[in-house]
Amino acid sequence: MARPTIADIARRVGVSKGAVSFALNGRPGVSEATRARILQVADEMNWRPHSAARALGGARAGAVGLVLARPASTLGVEPFFAQLLSGLQARLSAESMAMNLLVVEDSAAEIETYREWTSAHRVDGFVLVDPTVRDPRFEALEALGAPAVVLGGPGRFGALSSVWADDREAMLSVVDYLAALGHRRVAHVAGLPGLRHTQRRIRALRDSVRRLGLVDTVSLPTDFSDAEGAAATRTLLSRPGRPTAIVYDSDVMALAGLGVAGEMGVRVPGEVSIVSFDDSVLTRVTHPGITSLSRDTIALGGQVAEVLLQVIADPALRRDVKTATPRLVVRESTAPPAPGTAG
Amino acid sequence: MARPTIADIARRVGVSKGAVSFALNGRPGVSEATRARILQVADEMNWRPHSAARALGGARAGAVGLVLARPASTLGVEPFFAQLLSGLQARLSAESMAMNLLVVEDSAAEIETYREWTSAHRVDGFVLVDPTVRDPRFEALEALGAPAVVLGGPGRFGALSSVWADDREAMLSVVDYLAALGHRRVAHVAGLPGLRHTQRRIRALRDSVRRLGLVDTVSLPTDFSDAEGAAATRTLLSRPGRPTAIVYDSDVMALAGLGVAGEMGVRVPGEVSIVSFDDSVLTRVTHPGITSLSRDTIALGGQVAEVLLQVIADPALRRDVKTATPRLVVRESTAPPAPGTAG
DNA sequence: TCCGGCAACTAGAGCGGTTTAGTACCTCGG
DNA sequence: CCGAGGTACTAAACCGCTCTAGTTGCCGGA
């Protein structure tokens, strides 16, 4: 027998489709005896709901959407997304919610996908990542009236809810640590300049200069690729008055930087200290291990999912959840600067 | 105005719903003039198809499913999936097909997901990865009659189509290269022992012993994690008569192995050569760079998508596509063995 | 002139659920 | 013994789209 429908169950039990629907959805209108009988028959017939039919009636789609406007190559190397994804799904699957994932070219395509999926009732809500400085996605999503959660830093995302970490505080803790070790020339290999968190980190570093009396700090923007991370490192290490410590916005770039230092014969941490803003297996596995800011990305995914579920349940709701600030895990890539270089 | 339906368009143009449906789907039954008018109005009203309604009629769901039964932590570190994903989507999005992704605990949960998504018409077909030696998923999918493509090695996957690479040939090419450099003691840090490709690689290595007159080859299975990769490396390098070359089944493990060698003061490639079975940014970025088998994973994803689309279009079809065998990219982690260690 | 055939369209059933309006029956107070 | 009110159910509309069967009008051939 092909897929059974509630009509099949109704016939077999000898009740109406409506009664079956009530019973299967646990709502009042049927006696306990009838409900039990219907559930038993549904189970025997191996019935499963037809999500399309449900969605048609205006009910939940039973899925959330995540659209990424990042080049595929960038996606590949960062553990961040995979971990975020599994954290999201751990929470979502408890609610039998699926996840629609799409990788697109740019944010225009991303917005078009939001339109299509909303119109098509394909998803009940969206997760947004990588908020940029003047991000057209917020307005578009608000216009669509689709529930959404932004994963980003502090600040406003239109009327959208958010889950955020304090990048500023994290950067300050890194620079405080380096300054305490005696470093005065700290450089920063940043990520995409358009991203909000890149801006926040750059600003936090600049503020540290004044506060801690550092000299000569600089932030070089990159596209997060290993190639640009390596190039930026090469630039920094070739300068007269080279930095004694470099902070990288991602673990892949930190790793690339470590490679460049080795290549140039610059000892780590003897001549330059290295800190990564992201922790992952990569930072643990290298030799020397890389001092990193560590956070529980899987838990972060769970929090995002939680907030999204709440917003889906009550679209009028708006929540802004601050997550734990990443803490610094010290490994072998950081040490006090060599005497004579610290000026 | 809320989301427009084809009925709204029909009313506005002054034709029936059926005519609108014909026009929008590019099928005969309306004149060119009417079709143009309908398309124009649809565009003006910003109409988008409601995929649930389409799926209800028994038509395509407009999505494919990828269910991964891997621990989230393993997922994170390998660029492989992200690249595969983007390759899949590049091809699928040309057909406006979306992708439903789910990470589950084990293959029982995976099979249950296949049941649910098939019943619910949520997807039109599936991509299967990580085929194991006696894999229950093939039978389950055949019973469901769902179109599917297995990404794996040569061999039968029940009646399912497949896209496969020749692991055996790849392993042989690695061992040939190492033997040509003069290595006689080659070790292998393998992946999960239950996976078919792990078995094939182990067998290929064993066969090389006889063919090339190597001594003392060994394959240590792992769970693909950096921890087990490091542990296996430690074991191998502590042995009397330690190997002069180690082949790793993944880039993360090769990286971990490189770290362990550094820790133990074993020079790479002076005292031990290292080869990774997977190429990615990680192998390029380290110092020394790791010699690796390289393949175009994004293109691979495209091929899988192509075959899946064909099988969805004609479920009776069965295709087995062999992909290009990975080619060896030599970097600095391999060299002839030091004199006196090669025996 | 009439009819067959075709192009261009319409009407409406159907997909598998949900939901509302309505009905039959039971119970209980007065 | 009657009617109000609650419970347990049925019938059917409805969601947006597809697709089949039918209808209309026009053209060309005998």
Automatic annotation (TrEMBL), chains A, B:
Residues 4-58 form the HTH lacI-type domain. InterPro entries: HTH_LacI, LacI/GalR-like_sensor, Lambda_DNA-bd_dom_sf, Peripla_BP_I. Pfam families: LacI (PF00356), Peripla_BP_3 (PF13377). It comes from the Bacteria. SMART domains: HTH_LACI. The keyword Chloroplast does not apply. PANTHER family: ALANINE RACEMASE (PTHR30146:SF155), LACI-RELATED TRANSCRIPTIONAL REPRESSOR (PTHR30146). This is LacI family transcriptional regulator. Keywords: DNA-binding, Transcription, Transcription regulation. The keyword Methyltransferase does not apply. It comes from Nonomuraea glycinis. One of its GO terms (molecular function) is DNA-binding transcription factor activity.
